[in-house]
Amino acid sequence: MAVLVLGRPVVRSGGVLRHPARRMARILLGVLALRANRALPLEWIIEALWPGQPPASAASNVRTHLAELRRLLSAADQPGIVSSRDGYVLVASPDGVDVTSFQRLLAEGRELRGHGAHDAAARSLARAVGLWRGPVMAGVPVPEAVRPDVTMLDEQRISAVEDLVGVRLALGFHDELVPVLAGLVVEYPLRERFWRHLVAALAAAGRRTEAVAVYQRLVRVLAAELGVAPSRETTELFEAVRRNDAAAPEPGGCN
User: Fold this and answer.
1) Is the Cβ–Cβ distance between 40 and 31 less than 8 Å?
2) Do 106 and 128 meet the contact criterion of CB atoms below 8 Å apart?
3) InterPro entries, from UniProt (predicted)?
């Protein structure tokens, strides 16, 4: 991968991370990477970088930033940014941008999980999650024009963590995942799936009383924050745990 935006926008060249010198160039790199292999008209780029009030020199400034990015990409032996009558395109291979690599690995991990290949699924999902170095386009403002892209990626990242925890539970890593999940339910208190995984992990580790207490905490959180009760899937898991049911769902099967 040469273009990295799951964290600070940088170009990897010869194993070295190179940051565009100008802040606007870093923002432009992030925008181009989020829309890789798609033509972005100059007018669209200007509006994205300077919404509502572009300077008179906006077009010239964009070309200056593009020149800097092209130099960085050339040093990384990447095809780079090409211009066409439709606009400017960051030309990237499927693994040339960390965003597309993340999405490919996530899809691969989910497919492997669907076939019951939990070891391979865990490897793909761990690689996907491991590509994140921080928030998307960390250190620079995210233009409103690509805010939906960033929101979608943030959701995919959390979902990837949920998937990874699920397959690791299916592989029997109950004890080591309990503290991880305890932290995740604090960080994401409204993500019911993390709570469900924690209940399942505690139950599988023989800590049934704690599993029941976690479920009761979830009930209180959902009632206070959203005015809803846990989903049927979570309730069924809890009932099985409370009965100490030997036929309770496998932890990794908690979606």
Assistant:
1) yes
2) yes
3) AfsR-DnrI-RedD_regulator, BTAD, OmpR/PhoB-type_DNA-bd, Sig_transdc_resp-reg_C-effctor, TPR-like_helical_dom_sf, WH-like_DNA-bd_sf
| Residue partners of 219: CB distance under 8 A and separation at least 6 | 229, 230
Tokens of 10: 């940088």
Average pLDDT, the chain: 93
The whole-angstrom distance between residue 249's C-alpha and the CA centroid of its chain comes to 27
Structural domains in the chain, CATH included, are 3-91 (1.10.10.10), 172-255 (1.25.40.10)
Tell me the torsion sign for CA atoms 229, 231, 234, 236. Answer: positive
pLDDT reading at 249 higher than 60: no
Tell me the sheet residues that pair with 235: none
Residue spans of beta strands (DSSP E) within the chain: 3-4, 10-13, 16-18, 80-84, 87-91
Token pair of 186, please? 């604090």
For the question of whether the overall pTM of this predicted structure is more than 0.85, the answer is yes
| pLDDT tens string 179-219 | 999 999 999 999 999 999 999 999 999 999 999 999 999 99
> Alpha-carbon distance 80 to 143, whole Å?
22
